[in-house]
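Good morning C.,

I know you're traveling, so I'll keep this short. The sequence:
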Amino acid sequence: MASFKIEGGHKLNGTITPQGAKNEVLQILCAVLLTPEKVVVNNVPDIIDVNKLIFILGELGVKVKKLSRSSYSFQADEIDLDYLESADFKRDGSSLRGSIMIVGPLLARFGRGYIPRPGGDKIGRRRLDTHFEGFIRLGAKFRYNKEESFYGVEAEELNGVEMLLDEASVTGTANILMAAVLATGTTKIYNAACEPYIQQLSKMLNSMGAKISGVGSNLLIIEGVNSLGGCEHTVLPDMIEIGSWIGVAVMTQSELTIKNVSWENLGQIPNVFRKLGITLEKRGDDIYIPEQESYEIQNYIDGSVLTVADAPWPGFTPDLLSIVLVIATQAKGTVLIHQKMFESRLFFVDKLIDMGAKVILCDPHRATVIGMNFKSSLKATKMTSPDIRAGISLLIAALSAKGTSIINNIEQIDRGYENIEARLKSIGAKIERIED
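The tokens, ready to paste straight into the viewer:
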């Protein structure tokens, strides 16, 4: 188990280029299973979750070749379906939630797909019903081994159908979409997720020969095709990491430029940060954040306290609510953070309270933050990262705190952020990785 030792209270300065989007690349990598032809994927982040999925694909028989630091080729022309029922797969697949998305492509191309109950962040209940109900609607038979927590779907043929998803699940939409592209007939998915990740997956599948329309909306129409070919795809920059770097700049009162952010795919993110009083400048496709001594939270027009809440796209992403909460601890003013989509993601606030933040946890979904306007700095402390997003939020808090903090369980942070300590050091942060 490794830890970070962070000496906080230092101003930073420099330029950061965000990594490829983790949530997109997990879908894209699963999609390579839909064709026997070669697929090249660029801007692949070097993080634990992505590397685990690449390993699983290799064990499944996909020919994986690393072309450069962030580019790979994949060719799924000799798949070993027996691996899916092996003890190794039951171990490997259960450690990565994103592995659920291999089921749709395997079902579509080979008529069967299996998965152990996936792990991932401990952020509350994240059910899989949407995925499997979609497969069943397409004509698959579902089976579940309760003793081994092992799921399976099988079908001799998938047939297009109209379906209304019970929730706009991003991974559920991706999984069903990848199954439907090779189904017979037309599939309509209502209440589909429309995040940039799904838009990117749809564009990739269309470049492989799929016929998907409605991309970017919550109604996807898929005309099934007999087969798909190879393609080359470039992953978008990670919007969650971009928001995290904004948090780093703001909390350390630093000047920072974030390069090549793909502004058109950031949605509400810049607006929400601006509502907190943060100055963000658009310079070409970069974000420039000037050094700010203070920032004031905007109230609503009638003077009532601002609420920042998450919602399915084009609403504000839940993955950045913890960053907003940390930033608010040093703002001027008060904000209510409402985490609607997951019930345990606010439980890291007790660590911030230990550091001196004024946060009231109203219930598992809501926290009121009373900003200190940098009149009182956070205090350094020792803490443990509970999940990826809380982990990076605590890291940001530690960078702003006076004194030396220790963050344990940083493997959680490594699951989502590429080489984070080296990149922080490049802009002047005092951070060390300590191996136990």
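Safe travels,
E.
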